[in-house]
Fold each of these.
Amino acid sequence: MHELLCRGARVRVKDCKVEVLTDPAVVSCPYVRAAFKIDRIDREAVKRIVEFKIREYGHFCPHRSLKSDRVVPFGSSEMISSVMGKLLDCAVVVCDGAGSVIAWNPELVQGIGAAMTGLLRTTPIPEVIDRIREMGGDVLGEPRIDQVAAVRKAVEMGFERIAVTVIGPHADTIGELRDLEREEGVKLAIFSTCNTLIPEGYLEYLEMADVVCASASRLVVERIGPRALMQLGIHIPVFILTRLGKEIALEYLKEMRSIVVSRARMPFIMEDKLPEMREEERAHLNDS
């Protein structure tokens, strides 16, 4: 059994069957429109998106693909994998069927993260774990989602420059990760992802990250955006908050065929380009 967030909807997958448990928080999104040809997002649309990932990539199944040519512009796995061996030694990411993964093969990082978002809990799948180990990765002794424990294990394995992804519902662990970084004398590049449902009380943790994806959160755009040293993208802004984050972003941009650079007051947004949330969901987050 696996649970995840998709466009703010809580989804359960059991035996590769999809059940959408709650309404999505997002009603329209430029990325969803471009990638899935879906204009209005409802429970059926969410189910179609998750079923597509199961069908095309084997998510939540023993044959789960760990290689991917799929590229999401300014995606966390794309940025991390592009600088491994240069600015980073390994990455701690989350994979369905394996939980927290310590990966030192950039191809594995991209294969895991290219289409995986918002995983809340997962059940170990031995076939997936075995292939992760064959490809240049490892999991916790008791496979589970625990990014702090996985970073600690990465340090014990001898890695010193470690990327780690943290989704919005688990953003409170970012403080623990910074404490661990100081205790162990290592360098962490923290990527804050899947922030659509981030409550206002968690924004203080996002401020400690190096890279923050706004997802569909107006709170992140308004509160984190002005702190950014750099912004990637307009539809779903990615905010770079630290010098390390900026170094990673600039190294990643070297591989892009064409880019436009302009000075601007942060955040730089175009209202008609941002994802649209349900009004009741937005009001709830503002009050939380």
Amino acid sequence: MRHLITGGAGFIGSHLAEHLVSGGDEVFVIDDLSTGRVEHLRSLRDHPRFTLATQPLLSGGLLRERAEWADCIHHLAAVVGIRRRLQNPLEALRVNLRGTAAVLDAAGEGGTRVLLASTGEVYGKSAARLLTEEEDLVLGPTTRGSWGFAASRILDELEALAWHEERRLPVTVVRLFNTTGPRQRALHGGVLPTFVRQAIAGEPLTVHGNGAQVRTFACVREVVACWDRLAATPQSVGEVYNLGSDDEVSIRDLATLVTEVVRSSSTIETVPHAAVYPAGYEEAPRRVPSLTKLEGEIGLRPVAPIRRIVEGLVAHERQRVEA
């Protein structure tokens, strides 16, 4: 098969590209390298079934040309990192809304299969213990800029599903929850790589807020395997799926676990959100996905426990520092 990946030089996109090429498929990546990096695709650089185009998604006619060429489009391009999204809200909204519209328009011309990357952030402040795909989406007021990214992703989902409803475009929406692993950058807001790098350097681990907020973390290799399985599953067309782990942990406990794995004497310090993020930031106290629908559809789900994920990240970071 032939695959087009937008944002394919990013953290998840590069792992997906490797996964698809290793399976014998052909991959074309479009990435403007605003957050992606060419180094992420080093293993594919000279591969005959891989091509990278470093240009904006909306420039020229390349997107339409490659959408016609592709059997499947994986739309992963987005503005990465909470701080960047809050500091540049127009950029975040435009990349999501205009980028997704352009991808769907291009796919619609030939009826190309599309997998749209959404986010668990669309659930907002929902108080549900496990977030199912049919859960109400509970966002804060528009005066709090932290909800802009989630709102734009909701509109992206609605547009994709409207394409399916009206034009029978084969789309699937995938809500990602804190994917982590090698190549994730602390610079772009990855809390786990941030903790690992701080612990290895002997620096205090900085927990934003009170640390009681509960999250889950999924191994990127398991995530792309599930993503690929969804793309190959006809029954997933027109559906929305959570994709992540349900192995929950508080951010403070995560910081403690990192210090244990690293065997670091680093302290853990809490930092108020106001000292880190622009005004208007608001955070959900809990965000844990239900994976029942995903596993029922594809017979697969991310299962790596958080300790194993942390151990892998620590080993990767030490190797990177020593290189």
Amino acid sequence: MVARTSKKSVKVPKKSVAKPVAAKTASKPPPGNGVKRVKLLSGGNPQIAKGYGDAPVQAYIEAMPGWKRDVGHRLDELIGRAVPSVCKAVKWNSPFYGVEEGVWFLGLHCMTKYIKVAFFRGASLRPIPPGESKQEEVRYLNIFEHESLDEVQFVAWVKQASQLPGVKM
């Protein structure tokens, strides 16, 4: 029963109910070759859902734009060879690598003109990676398109980093 306080009727506008995005796109086939398109965030960083294991990391690498994709595959391969039992995850739209799930020693991130490799305990590596951070322990290796990667040094850093206490995230 509805109680009326006055004789005037008040029309209440109908609220429009937004349909979930998934409902709109789920019935549509993916564009092009059947591969789902991934949104690129600022700097061309792929927006990949949080997930653990190799599959989300490979999805991130496949979504890396242009030359960064090939470098991403190479970095992933080098990390896997250096640390055969490496754990992988995508968190905060970036791949993470660790010796156990939830404890990470390295992360990747696409920037506009380079790939940023973050060594979370990089200040303890020898030699210390060149890129400084506002965080005392973190050091970066920035990889640009037309620069060659010193793979021997990179693998040495990965091996060292994997043997240091990881960062819980």
Amino acid sequence: MVNQQNSNKEFDFKTLFRSGILGVNPYSPGKPIEEVQRELGLTDIIKLASNEDPQGPHPEVIKAIEVAAQDINRYPDGSSYQLSNRLAEHLNVDPSMVLLGNGSNELLNMIVRGLISPGENMVFAHPSFVVYGLAAAIHFECGRAIPLDKNDRHDLPAMAGAVDDKTKLLMICNPNNPTGTYNTTKEVEDLLQSIPSRVIVVLDEAYFEYAYADDYPDGIELLKKYPNLVVARTFSKIHALAGLRVGYAVGHSELITQLQKTREPFNVNTLAQAAALAALNLPEMVKERSLRNKTEGAWLAEQLTRLGFQVVPSQGNFLFVRHAMAASEMCEKLLKKGVIIRPMNSFGLGDGALRITIGVKEENQKCVLALESILEDFTG
């Protein structure tokens, strides 16, 4: 029986948690379309806030999901056997080198959870994908955040310099989220050669399929030379499966075998496995979407520059921009015009920085027209 006297006492549950958890702000996603519709009563809304591919899944993928939906009374294939093997064939690696996750977020957390022990640390860039800092803070407060260089790129020599005898992990987001900048093949290899081979380097290539620079590295190729490398990619972006959450990591088979032990049972659901399998059979779609993104991104960058934005060159499906108007004010005004973009406050940046996803032509045009209207009277 519950002691009534004790149950009535006020109890501070925060005393139960480690300081790393108490100091973390929950991940803040982009505002969903439905929320804006409810708040403002708008129907014509475009969302350019969360780096989703604007064209949606291919019809063949939808068809595969519909077929797989007939069996959702059954648990998924816990080993994702078909997807693992098809993905290994697609990447020309052994299936034992593939680890699947509920989005690449889960994989990153699995790697941190599996490798970091009390007193050890991990190195990553700031600003970069916020999950690195969240995972590091929650897991033994083990993060070492190294500022980007003056060109908003990973400062790889400084990151290498932050590695010590307690460093277990080093994270590189390439292209970087939220800046869209990238590090070259030579720069990544220089880093890999300058740090101890016992340090696992995670190359997060969530936007791999959008990158077009000649000297942009292919992490799978680098794996042949550097066994301490792990490459993380996702079906959430160019394959447009963000709502199903399926990502994958590729690394040395002995490393992946141990990481498999940290995977939650049935972590990749039945529909996600079917959709990803179908998506792997659509290489022409990937090429078309990559080209569309490059063309539309160039047009949008030109228009934003004309409107007074500082635009950082991007290899992703988004643009990182700065403006004299406060980002919070600009986003609020855009919301009223049915355009959702992302202020960068949650990434720890100042109130003049924004990230704008590259949409299809009509969406980009609407965004530019809305910005023109907002900035007509701005004299910052």
